[in-house]
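Researcher: First entry.
Model:
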Amino acid sequence: MATLSFTSETVEMYLKSIAELELLTTPVAISQLAQRLGVSSPSVLEMVKRLAEQKLVTHTPYKGVSLTARGHSRALAVLRRHRLWERFLVDTLRLPWEAVHDYACQLEHAAAPAVVDALAQFLGEPDTCPHGNPIPDAKGAMPAETAIPLLTMEIGQSARLTNIIYEETILLEYLARRGLLPGAMLTLEDVAPYQGPLMVRVDGFDHPAALGREIAARVFVHVIE
């Protein structure tokens, strides 16, 4: 079996995707990773086996895959590049907030460490990407998550939106149209029974937004006591 190159775009894509999914659940199911990457489960399983041989992940059959310390370090390096490019695309090139995730996915594999460090300096060493997620520093350090999922809020509570995890363009577009961007103030008005949507009123909007539970699990907030 051929040895994977540590500079492979495919390897980086897998490691970053696992890191993102681990924010929602760990270990990450093969089917989840396949859906995220848009490939078949057998193809993902084969790649996971090869990553495990390189000590980048651990795989438990019928349970899922997790990053090792080595894999996590590699994933953080990719996330640093990705989130810095997002910051550049929004702050400098003024591209739409909801569109830059896909562009950054293309750019994250094409920058040498010296370029990434220069980009960070040019941007003023930002702490977060435009979607509110922390940017790992050059040593791979990143602050722990202190916000909570909107899904866990109680009816009547108000909060400030901090970040959106596991970004996807279709999700970002949906949130942007409803004013659900980092910094937005919101109130949970109602939760429909039987796994129905959450009704969230955003400051400055006349009507509440309906958020499905999967979306509400990916929107993080700081509750205002």
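Researcher: Second entry.
Model:
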Amino acid sequence: MPIVTRPIRYAHGGIIFEAFATWDDAAPGPRPLVLVAGTFMGRSRFEEGKARSLAELGYVGVAIDVYGVDHWPADADQARARMATLDADRAELKARLRVALDAALAADAPVDRAKVAAIGFCFGGKCVLDLARSGAGLAGVVSFHGLYDAPPFPNEAISAKILALHGWEDPLAPPDAVLGLASEMTEAGADWQLHAYGHTVHAFTNPAREGMYSPAADARSWQAMRNFLNEIFA
């Protein structure tokens, strides 16, 4: 299985961004595109690994960049500052996400443009929910231990199906925030579902997060994502 990787460079607002694209070069024909939005650390080896795993499942995986190559954080403190800047300007975050989607669709990769989804982890979970809120033409989005606060402006019509994969004891998304997301998606008329994992906290998919990683929730959530992608791309 020859998994190939390619950088995707593009500009927005005077900033250069670089996404990481990967797919199985031996498989014939176009296949669905799945964007991967990263944690507060941005596009890292973790997200690139998830993109590769998607390539092995038969998709084109693209780990996107929301900070820009000259603004990639060197440590967690820088990453929190970068994330806070975008949290404070959700319109700019939305613009960067839409540009990343357009760049992935325009790249030289074997993409079926009619079949597009996005997954995200932590801050990236918020990002993919914001892509859905923006009215982007996605079949679906999957938020892994995401952040659920809605942007301070009205949503566009949400056509993407929504899957939220949540650690019930996540201190960054307490029960009130979960209920807020459920109410928001219901009022928007979205097709949404939520899987909550008991005795599970934030970052449950990341083996590097000692005390937070849950092998069981990691495996269950990845399988739930696979089932969801199979459904929306059928």
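Model: Note on the second entry: Residues 3-232 form a domain with the Rossmann fold fold (CATH 3.40.50.1820).
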